[in-house]
Amino acid sequence: MTQHIDKLAWIFVEQRRVLMTRSYGKDQYYLPGGKREQGESDQQALIREIKEELNVDLIPETLSLVEVFQAQAHGKAEGVMVVMRCYQGDYQGQLQASAEIEELRWLTTTDKTICSQAACLVLDYLAENGLID
User: Fold this and answer.
1) What does the pLDDT look like over 62-90, one tens digit per residue?
2) C-beta separation of 60 from 106 below 8 A
3) For residue 126, what are the CA distances in angstroms to 32, 38, 95, 129?
């Protein structure tokens, strides 16, 4: 039986690059976001996770679903899949690494070797849609 990890992620593109994060002790970059807590909607979970990880406030009325991606979960047993519901939207505040996040980085398709499989799918999607290089 395939196991799924339910994740929400924020896609933020600026100057044809997408914002990615790397957690302490990890060697791969991911989209910022995380898992929902019991009873949370997509929007509530994403707003909470982004506040925790990047210390900014997403603006709820600007959030919209971009796409849902599925890939092998990085660092998990073969067959454990992450299902990532990706949203875009505006924020208020100053982006900074917080909580478990060690580093923020702006990436393009040339950075796929340092990204999780799910992040690579997002990079390809953004490039195919002319949003990043």
Assistant:
1) 999 999 999 988 888 888 899 999 999 99
2) no
3) 16, 31, 21, 5
